[in-house]
Amino acid sequence: GESVGLHLPTLSVQEGDNSIINCAYSNSASDYFIWYKQESGKGPQFIIDIRSNMDKRQGQRVTVLLNKTVKHLSLQIAATQPGDSAVYFCAENRGRVKAAGNKLTFGGGTRVLVKP
Amino acid sequence: NAGVTQTPKFQVLKTGQSMTLQCAQDMNHNSMYWYRQDPGMGLRLIYYSASEGTTDKGEVPNGYNVSRLNKREFSLRLESAAPSQTSVYFCASSEFSLGTSHDQPQHFGDGTRLSIL
What we know:
The complex is a heterodimer. Chain A is mainly β. Chain A has strands at about 5, 10-15, 20-25, 30-40, 45-50, 55-60, 60-65, 70-75, 85-95, 100-105, 110-115. In chain A, the strands form two sheets. In chain A, strands 2, 4, 5, 9, 10 and 11 form a six-stranded mixed beta sheet that branches. Chain A has a five-stranded antiparallel beta sheet with strand order 1-3-8-7-6, with no helix packed on it. Chain A is globular, with a radius of gyration of 14 Å. By secondary structure, chain B is an all-beta fold. Helix content of chain B is about 0%, strand content about 50%. In chain B, the strands form two sheets. In chain B, strands 2, 4, 5, 6, 9, 10 and 11 form a seven-stranded mixed beta sheet that branches. In chain B, strands 1-3-8-7 form a four-stranded antiparallel beta sheet, with no helix packed on it. In chain B, strand 4 and strand 5 (about 45-50) form a beta hairpin. In chain B, about 40% of the residues are buried. The interface of A and B includes residues 34, 41, 100 and 108 of A.
């Protein structure tokens, strides 16, 4: 079936370098995407989102890029810090919950390890 | 501001026992959700409640029931626990969404870690 997936299960990055986490999606009807960060023992924490009418969106030290042509989503973290070590999930909105809320489908996650 | 609160944080059950997982949110969100997360996997939707008074099945609803008690609270019940239901359960909530331009992210609690022996 259609799914959201990630290319790299583990990403090791040197402190201070930039990180890029990739995500492929297959449902061309998806129009809303979210990146979450999950630390050990915690729930997913919202990082940034993007709607399909945008190609790029920036937050604090993070940038999400959306390429609808190839159905690809990426999260860029600038100047990666030890506190960025976590598992990162992308999620896509595959359908509206009766015109309220949304139904998200999550990818399998990428672990980011920041080396000092 | 607590956000989404889940209780209990940990629980061990024997096969066949029943249990209710509690979830409450203080963000005045209309929609609430229950997910399960298995090792090395993303979250899978069990049930959701688009608004107070409505509930619907998600991707993996078998073996579970839910109750939207009021706008704040959404509980998940295991009537007869099975080892396959050992998992971490997450509750989430989100704002009302009228359409594409109004999508809002879901906000999650810290989970209930459930082991069934």
